[in-house]
Amino acid sequence: MAPLLAALFNDGSSLPLHEAFSGVFGSISLAAWIFLLVPQVIENYRQSSAEGISLAFLIVWFIGDITNLLGALWAGLVPTVTALAIYFCFADLILITQCVYYNVRNARKARRRASRNPTTPITETEPLLARRESSNLGLPGSHRRKSSTRSRRRSRASSLPSIADDVETSNEWVKNTLSILGVCLVGAAGWVIAYRIGVWRPPPPETSLSSEVPLGAEILGYASAVCYLGARIPQIIKNQKEGSCEGLSLLFFMLSLLGNATYGIGILFHSTEKEYFLTNLPWLIGSLGTMVEDATIFVQFRMFGNPEQTAAIE
């Protein structure tokens, strides 16, 4: 990031340093949000299941994105904020549709298996364990959270370390780290290009301080913040109740943490004036407040998450 900023100021640019940092962090946040849902979509596809993620989490988050979009339109926020809100609404719908599809499809398969074996007592885990034991192909998604949790507990009981598991955890750590660094690089480079060609310019100080947000837009902004803060609670409860983070993408929450952190930092680098701070307070609460909940989910990954993913947060 430092070389990119140095290149800007070598051409005699009069852009203040704090505005440059504000633009860079804002662009990194934008890149993180654009790629945010991709890891979870891929994880669901790889597992052929969406059992790991809470639908209540996604629905409340979707409501937050809708109120955020309406508030941004009403307040007349910068086009990038509005465009990102629109993108998120569509991305949420894609992820929710995928989750509903897998849940319905897998439920139908379970009912068909139960109808073919009416004499077999149906319990919460019996059909799932039977399916896993009968599958010798190792297909993604051929096991459920409870059966995989039991297998993990059995493997943890063993005192013999697995070299293959160590290699897999190392690869997962490297993959997640490179992904985060790549998003930061793309965001920073994107801002430099946008500034060079004149697409991005810092807003005038008098504009950022004197503009008043309509009361309705402010209410929608706080409503979206409440939704963002409350959305992760069902997921945290689900993880704790099942004692597993199986089916969740750790990179999904890492990108969320990166996007929230850089978004808040970008706003504060632009200005710390009281009027500007209060104008952006709803969005700051929604972004920075969820970082605590993301940290809680990281702890859950560390406690009982996927063994191949927990190495990324050690």
From TrEMBL:
The chain crosses the membrane at residues 20-42, 54-77, 83-104, 178-199, 219-237, 249-269. It is a multi-pass membrane protein. Keywords: Membrane, Transmembrane, Transmembrane helix. Coiled coil: none annotated. InterPro entries: LAAT-1, PQ-loop_rpt. It holds the Pfam family PQ-loop. Its main location: membrane. Belongs to the laat-1 family. This is PQ-loop-domain-containing protein. Residues 134-159 are annotated as: Disordered. GO terms for cellular component: lytic vacuole membrane.
